[in-house]
Q: What sequence folds into this?
């Protein structure tokens, strides 16, 4: 008989091993899934994990890793601060959209003026836009005690409507022959988030993501505010005793995650995506939740997890086009990753004991 | 009647890393009150859980009235005539008495019949109780009656009571004892768990003493002194705290007209509380649990803020300041709950040292943490207060109750408070740790700190307090010098019988 037994202390070893174990179990379960779909499971898993890194066209896919990973990491870092404190911002997707809209709007307002000041202003506007959008659930929670999960999530759908309205109306390209979507920043040098080194995939969003990782690491491990965030998540009453004011923490965590999501949106719209369009958002804000947990809410872990998720995105696309796997199968595959991670997480705090069946 | 009701022989139960019971044997005869005595962690709870079918023994046997008795679940134990009143009540505040009783029954009769039966039983045993009152409105003593009546309705042969008097005033204890004596006169045996020695001497016919899971002796409490029993319990003589005579200084904390609505629906509001504490003085605040202790601690710690003028520290109003600001001014506190309130269970002792010490111990620089200094502070607490742990990197939850309590009290004591407020400082702590915590509080007062000790342990309060008062339904009694107070006077300060009638039991 199997028996779970609480460990006296959380296991350090398993804290690091569980993400790896989750990836392995996902590969196995994913193989079964692909086999049931009538595909060669080994080929499918290899396509997802191997092809982008070492395959024939890896020179193209490798930079994509940074392009797709940066927004995930940037958003996930922000989310992880709140998650550590038990503040659940589920609406990063919305903050990402709003950041893109406000940032792009500032850039487009200056068009066609050329100045090196324009891009920094756009960055600022993007961060503020995301921050403002996140402040809505924060304020409602602090003032009226609403649930931040529901409010932030529902605001995603509001943001999506706003995005559609912007691409069809206010921000529509006047020279776009009536097609929806704004002007393309790739053709506007002052507002373009160009690659810093050509062909590397390294744009300013990647730099921002790296800075966010370092910032979060220092905050959580070396600063009293980070300590209070961790304390609030682990023992809310002890945090009250320590003098933490929960409302300030809600404002800080939601605000920071909103600002970082807004930044991610701005870097995306002014770089890889290029323009505001109806289908601008592709779910980075939701995937970042998986990334945050996969990375154990630890800044360095999140960075690695962001790259891993980017890999499954890219690999998934290759598998879709090369092997004809349905898009839903890839999403399922990503979902499994979070599912198994949460499941094997148990091993950090519990150990499995084999005991002889008791004779009743 | 001297027939053996329950015979326990060689019961053993081991949990990972700890042997809770090792080869325990004793007998309970019909119609006796048998005490089970021991420190916290001695294995009393595990033993009664085995009798009640909640835990399966690893080895050993029990016989009930001559027949083998091995209950696999509480239902089986109840069917065999064993009932238990737990220390922590399992009652729903929002339901009435009869509904609560019905919830515990397999086939509850119609509500009206049940109410009649509750009335009958409660009158027969001198436990007056209205079946239709909401449990949330009952005092702790009355709630206990609900639990007892719930058991009596099963017509038990053996009634197990786990520390029943910890929530009662001395007067209420007398009422309970009358009921128990009435029960034993009918042949019911009572297994009475406690560590209050005088109580056991007054009530019990036999006492079995457990230490570290072993039966270390059975005695007749009436013929044994409390000291002898204590030494059996602890295994050696331990030092009682020593108090030195001391001079009192100026008023350190002045509470005037403190009123506070309770934050919870079934909590207790504080009503117009006045008291002062001088430097070097220990004020003991007693009272039955749930009479506003948590709320008073909250109001003093700053977790609940009040009218600014209601609380003055060294003359300065602090009523609307939060915990951090009060700590800066020298008012330190330790809450009742160790894990989750005084300390974060998953965090290391070093991180927990930071919890209240960050500013006073200078453990941060513009918000940036000095981990080396923090670890030094944690080590100092561990060393000074003899906290048994592998080191400051250990998670708080890995410590035993007594060791963690020494750590969280020590953390405040080492910060040189002007005023220290502690709530239940030795609750659930072994005797040796309790003695050292009390000594620490006495030493602190001797060095000029004003100490407020909120506790439900009257012996503790009498041992360390200079002055004593009690909370009763959110009001504070008169404050009287602790020396020379009689048990009767203390009981009256605590609210007497709490509105409960004295039992009229026909012998």
A:
């Amino acid at each position: 008989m199997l028996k779970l037994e609480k460990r006296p202390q959380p296991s350090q070893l398993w804290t690091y091993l569980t993400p790896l174990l989750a990836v392995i179990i996902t590969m196995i379960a994913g193989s079964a899934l692909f086999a049931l779909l009538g595909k060669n499971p080994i080929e499918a898993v290899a396509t997802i994990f191997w092809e982008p890194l070492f395959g024939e066209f890896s020179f193209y896919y490798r930079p994509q890793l940074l392009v797709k990973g940066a927004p995930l990491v940037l958003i996930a870092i922000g989310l992880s601060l709140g998650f550590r404190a038990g503040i659940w911002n589920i609406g990063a997707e919305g903050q990402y959209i709003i950041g893109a809209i406000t940032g792009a709007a500032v850039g487009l307002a200056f068009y066609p003026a050329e100045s090196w000041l324009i891009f920094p202003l756009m960055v600022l506007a993007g961060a503020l836009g995301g921050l403002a959008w996140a402040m809505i659930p924060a304020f409602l929670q602090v003032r009226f005690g609403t649930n931040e999960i529901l409010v932030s999530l529902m605001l995603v759908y509001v943001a999506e409507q706003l995005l559609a309205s912007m691409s069809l109306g206010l921000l529509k390209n006047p020279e776009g022959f009536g097609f929806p979507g704004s002007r393309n920043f790739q053709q506007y040098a002052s507002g373009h988030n160009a690659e810093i080194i050509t062909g590397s995939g390294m744009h300013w969003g990647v730099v921002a993501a790296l800075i966010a990782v370092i910032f979060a690491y220092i905050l959580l491990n070396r600063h009293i505010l980070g300590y209070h965030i961790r304390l609030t998540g682990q023992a809310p009453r002890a945090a009250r005793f320590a003098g933490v004011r929960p409302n300030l923490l809600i404002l800080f965590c939601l605000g920071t995650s909103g600002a970082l999501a807004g930044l991610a949106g701005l870097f995306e719209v002014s770089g890889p995506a290029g323009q505001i369009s109806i289908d601008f958002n592709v779910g980075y804000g939701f995937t970042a939740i998986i990334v945050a947990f996969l990375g154990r809410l630890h800044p360095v872990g999140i960075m690695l997890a962001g790259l891993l998720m980017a890999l499954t995105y890219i690999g998934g696309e290759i598998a879709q086009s090369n092997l004809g796997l349905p898009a839903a199968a890839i999403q399922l595959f990503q979902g499994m990753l979070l599912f198994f991670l949460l499941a094997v997480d148990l091993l950090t705090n519990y150990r499995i004991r084999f005991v002889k069946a008791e004779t009743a | 009647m001297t027939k053996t009701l329950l015979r326990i022989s060689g019961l053993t139960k081991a949990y990972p890393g700890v042997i809770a019971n090792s080869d325990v044997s004793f007998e309970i005869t019909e119609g006796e009150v048998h005490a089970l005595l021991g420190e916290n962690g001695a294995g009393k709870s595990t033993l009664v859980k085995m009798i009640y079918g909640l835990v399966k023994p690893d080895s050993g046997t029990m016989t009930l009235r001559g027949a083998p008795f091995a209950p696999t679940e509480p239902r089986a134990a109840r069917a065999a005539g064993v009932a238990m009143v737990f220390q922590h009540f399992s009652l729903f505040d929002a339901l009435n008495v009869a509904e609560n009783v019905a919830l515990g029954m397999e086939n509850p009769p119609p509500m009206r019949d049940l109410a009649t039966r509750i009335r009958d039983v409660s009158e027969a045993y001198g436990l007056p109780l209205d079946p239709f009152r909401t449990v949330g409105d009952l005092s702790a003593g009355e709630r206990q009656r609900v639990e007892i009546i719930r058991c009596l309705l099963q017509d038990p042969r053996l009634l197990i009571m786990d520390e029943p008097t910890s929530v009662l005033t001395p007067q209420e204890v007398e009422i309970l004892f009358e009921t128990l004596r009435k029960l034993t006169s009918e042949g019911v045996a009572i297994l009475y768990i406690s560590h209050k020695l005088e109580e056991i001497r007054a009530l019990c016919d036999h006492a079995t003493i457990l230490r570290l899971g072993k039966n270390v002796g059975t005695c007749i409490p009436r013929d044994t002194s409390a000291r002898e029993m204590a030494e059996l319990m602890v295994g050696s003589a331990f030092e009682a705290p020593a108090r030195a005579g001391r001079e009192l200084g100026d008023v350190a904390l002045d509470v005037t007209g403190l009123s506070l609505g309770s934050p919870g629906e079934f909590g207790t509001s504080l009503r117009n509380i006045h008291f002062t504490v001088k430097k070097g003085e220990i004020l003991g605040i007693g009272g039955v649990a749930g009479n506003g202790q948590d709320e008073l601690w909250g109001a003093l710690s700053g977790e609940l803020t009040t009218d600014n003028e209601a609380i003055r520290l060294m003359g300065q109003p602090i009523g609307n300041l939060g915990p951090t600001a009060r700590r800066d001014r020298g008012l330190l506190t330790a809450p009742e709950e160790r894990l989750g309130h005084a300390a974060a269970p998953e965090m290391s002792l070093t991180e927990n040292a930071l919890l209240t010490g960050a500013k006073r111990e200078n453990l941060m620089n513009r918000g940036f943490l000095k981990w080396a200094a923090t670890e030094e502070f944690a080590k100092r607490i561990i060393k000074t207060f003899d906290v048994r742990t592998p080191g400051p990197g250990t998670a708080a939850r890995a410590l035993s109750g007594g060791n963690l309590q020494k750590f969280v009290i020590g953390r405040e004591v080492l910060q040189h408070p002007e005023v220290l407020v502690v709530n239940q400082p030795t609750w659930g702590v072994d005797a040796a740790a309790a003695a050292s915590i009390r000594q620490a509080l006495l030493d602190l007062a001797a060095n000029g700190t004003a100490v407020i000790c909120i506790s439900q342990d009257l012996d503790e309060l009498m041992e360390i307090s200079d002055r004593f008062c009690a909370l009763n339904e959110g009001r504070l009694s008169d404050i009287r010098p602790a020396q020379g107070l009689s048990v009767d006077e203390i009981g009256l300060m605590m609210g007497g019988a709490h509105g409960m009638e004295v039992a009229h039991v026909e012998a």
